[in-house]
Amino acid sequence: MMKNLREKIEEIEHSRRELLLKNEELQKTQRQLVQSEKLAAIGQLAAGVAHEINNPLAYVMSNMETLEDYIAAYEKGAEEFR
User: Fold this and answer.
1) What is d(CA 35, CA 41) in angstroms, rounded to the nearest whole number?
2) Which of 44, 63, 65 is nearest to 55 (CA)?
3) Which residues of 31-67 are buried (b: 16+ CB within 10 A; e: fewer)?
4) What are 28-52's pLDDT values in tens digits?
């Protein structure tokens, strides 16, 4: 009877250790998932900021090209009147 009780205690202890290991693995996986989600959120935020910077910049650059065309046309017209 004592042997049977010891075997059961060892089985329970073995199961407890396995559960502790599985729990540690789950916690590690959860931390990795949270970190991955944080990085994804930072990536989306950075893309949004880049988009908000790029739009006005592209607008200004486009208008600068148009202004250069107007200046060239004006200078060409001014040369004809000299």
Assistant:
1) 10
2) 63
3) eeeeeeeeeeeeeeeeeeeeeeeeeeeeeeeeeeeee
4) 999 999 999 999 999 999 999 999 9
